[in-house]
């Protein structure tokens, strides 16, 4: 009798490793080469370390470390051993980390040795039993202990609906929610993309994105691994380095800011991209100017796609001309297996080109928010579609265009910034009566936050002091790029702050 394959995502990634395990799997920007055998052995050793801790089923492994191949191996090891990976942006500061750790109650926390002095106590206070360090120079207690572990490990059996990862996404109101993604969510999406984007033998990916969000951790990494493809691994995005490496690569993925910065490089020429097969953009709207300029400079048409932490990838422009042209300003078609519809506020299906709320269902859609059943229920329709909070339309040929968001969200350089969170911090400052944070266009980050603040009657406020205070509490990308103290905020007849008007007033700030 044929035994059923293990639905553990790692089992599928491992099965895709090339037969020659001594070939190069990863080349780093500091001149290191990792073979497929290295990935296999090191992920086995870290998986054995996790197993030896005697963790409970479904234990969360929270990780806030700099990008490194070892950090990627820790992710693979977590899957391999069957635990739940919880990646955290390296920019998060103590209040943010305290919330995530308190909410997720991870059994293991891995942080940098630089941050251990404050992350460790937060973890201990939340009941975390194991704190390890991991640095980007292949040091730290995690690797010291793993070095003592066996380099063979039988992949844990997991069902497709078992959790593989929790990704925190900020909320428009209240605190961040942990989107629970299963092995089935991640593997089905990776398999669809492998086929849809024509991953092929010999592909080489330039991996230049952070590995604590969907784009770098899932879309890029799973894409390369499931194809047994070599990665050119950049610990940080550096446009010069990317241009230098383009002739050795075939696939690149980036948020729009990465494309804007690459276009500023004189070395980006048709000659530099001669071996490239595919440029993918997403996480934020790609300006049509960037799309056009890229085509002119390189002869390549960027393929724009659309995703979310809760759903992984939802829609993509076509890869082959037979499927259609890649249209700038659109995110293409719903991916195979994804049902995507646009409905008005009353729940009626919109007609062709009519603007409404984007709702989705499919094997890629998450199973809910961690320990928030009520929130989860609110975000799904009665017939099981997830409400994305994005507003868009579908044309007669099926091309989807995102025209805006019903959620009050700023996407800055591919990172999400929720005005409600920033306003909450500003409003707590002494002397502040009220504030509004809005997103305005920015040539580099696409969009950035601007704060408009009102002082309590009779008081005075210093805009610079407000920004300095926020910097001491929040991740740097969330800090408003400008802050204004004004006498009043524009309101509608219901007394609600008119953010559209504020955006309009400040739209030229960074022109
Ligand atoms: C850095 N800064 C930013 C941002 N990044 N400000 C606003 N928005 C940003 N995204 C500011 C810092 O606060 C700092 O300001 C200064 O820039 C320099 O910081 P540094 O870290 O050196 O910046 P950088 O290395 O130039 O980073 C820019 C970046 C980075 C490379 C574009 O933001 C980035 O990697 N973005 C990609 C994010 C991503 O992977 N998103 C995918 C999410 P100061 O000096 O004043 O402190 S996944 C997703 O959305 C979905 C599911 C999807 O569809 O993919
Ligand atoms: P997050 O949940 O943090 O991963 O962010 C997901 C959000 O990013 C989506 O709901 C969209 O608003 C936005 N997004 C992702 N890809 C695109 C894209 N290609 N164009 C416009 N917005 C996008």
Average pLDDT, rounded to a whole number, is: 96
Listed once per kind, the bound small molecules are: methylmalonyl-coenzyme A, adenosine monophosphate
Helix fraction bin = 25-40%
Low-confidence stretches: none
User: Biggest sheet, open or closed, and with what strands and sense?
Assistant: 9 strands, mixed
User: N- to C-terminal separation?
Assistant: 66 Å
Radius of gyration: 23 Å
- CATH H-level superfamily title of the domain at 409-506: ANL, C-terminal domain
Q: Could you characterize what this model shows?
A:
- This protein is an alpha/beta fold and about 500 residues long.
- Among the domains are: about 80 residues, Luciferase, Domain 3 (Luciferase, domain 3, Roll), CATH 2.30.38; about 100 residues, ANL, C-terminal domain (GMP Synthetase, Chain A, domain 3, 2-Layer Sandwich), CATH 3.30.300.
- The protein has 15 helices and 25 strands.
- Helix 2 packs across helix 3, helix 4 runs parallel beside helix 5 and helix 7 packs across helix 8.
- The longest helix is centred in the N-terminal third of the chain and has 17 residues.
- It is globular.
- Bound molecules: methylmalonyl-coenzyme A (MCA) and adenosine monophosphate (AMP).
- Adenosine monophosphate binds next to strand 13, strand 19 and strand 20.
- The site of methylmalonyl-coenzyme A has 23 residues, from helix 8 and strand 13.
């Amino acid at each position: 009798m044929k035994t059923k394959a293990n639905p553990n995502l790692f089992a599928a990634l491992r099965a895709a490793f090339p037969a020659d395990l001594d070939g190069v799997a990863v080349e780093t920007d500091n001149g290191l080469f990792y073979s497929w055998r290295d990935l296999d052995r090191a992920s086995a050793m870290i998986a054995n370390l996790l197993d030896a801790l005697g963790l409970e089923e479904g234990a969360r492994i929270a990780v806030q470390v700099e990008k490194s191949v070892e950090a990627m191996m820790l992710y693979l090891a977590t899957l391999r051993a069957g635990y739940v990976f919880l990646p955290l942006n390296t920019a998060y500061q103590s209040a943010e980390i305290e919330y995530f750790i308190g909410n997720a109650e991870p059994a293991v926390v891995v942080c940098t040795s630089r941050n251990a002095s404050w992350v460790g106590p937060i973890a201990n206070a939340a009941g975390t039993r194991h704190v390890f360090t991991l640095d980007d120079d292949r040091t730290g207690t995690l690797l010291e202990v793993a070095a003592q572990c066996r380099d063979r490990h039988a992949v844990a059996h997991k069902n497709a609906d078992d959790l593989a990862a929790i990704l925190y996404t900020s909320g428009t109101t209240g605190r961040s929610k942990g989107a629970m993604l299963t092995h089935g969510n991640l593997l089905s999406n990776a398999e669809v993309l492998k086929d849809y984007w024509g991953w092929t033998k010999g592909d080489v990916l330039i991996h230049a994105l952070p590995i604590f969000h969907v784009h770098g951790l899932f879309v890029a990494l799973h894409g390369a691994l499931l194809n047994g493809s070599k990665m050119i691994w950049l610990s940080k995005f550096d446009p010069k380095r990317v241009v230098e490496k383009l002739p050795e690569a075939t696939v690149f993925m980036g948020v729009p800011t990465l494309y804007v910065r690459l276009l500023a490089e004189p070395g980006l020429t048709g000659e530099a991209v001669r071996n490239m097969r595919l440029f993918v953009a997403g996480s934020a709207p790609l300006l049509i100017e960037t799309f056009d300029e890229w085509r002119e400079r390189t002869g390549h048409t960027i393929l724009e796609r659309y995703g979310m932490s809760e759903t992984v990838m939802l829609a993509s422009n076509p890869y082959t001309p037979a499927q259609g042209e890649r249209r700038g300003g659109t995110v293409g078609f719903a991916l195979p297996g994804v049902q995507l519809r646009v409905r008005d506020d009353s729940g009626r299906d919109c007609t062709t080109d009519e603007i409404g709320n984007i709702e989705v269902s499919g094997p890629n859609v998450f199973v809910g928010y961690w320990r928030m059943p009520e929130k989860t229920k609110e975000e799904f329709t009665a017939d099981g579609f997830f409400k994305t909070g994005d507003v868009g339309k579908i044309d007669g040929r099926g091309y989807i265009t995102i025209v805006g968001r019903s959620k009050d969200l700023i996407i800055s350089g591919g990172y999400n910034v929720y005005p409600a969170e920033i306003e909450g911090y500003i409003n707590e400052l002494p002397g502040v009566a009220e504030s509004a944070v809005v997103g305005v266009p920015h040539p580099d980050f696409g969009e950035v936050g601007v704060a408009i603040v009102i002082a309590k009657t009779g008081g005075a406020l210093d805009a610079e002091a407000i920004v300095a205070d926020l910097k001491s509490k929040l991740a740097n990308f969330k800090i408003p790029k400008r802050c204004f103290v004004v006498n009043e905020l524009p309101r509608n007849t219901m007394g609600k702050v008119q953010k559209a008007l504020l955006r309009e007033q400040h739209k030229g700030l960074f022109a």
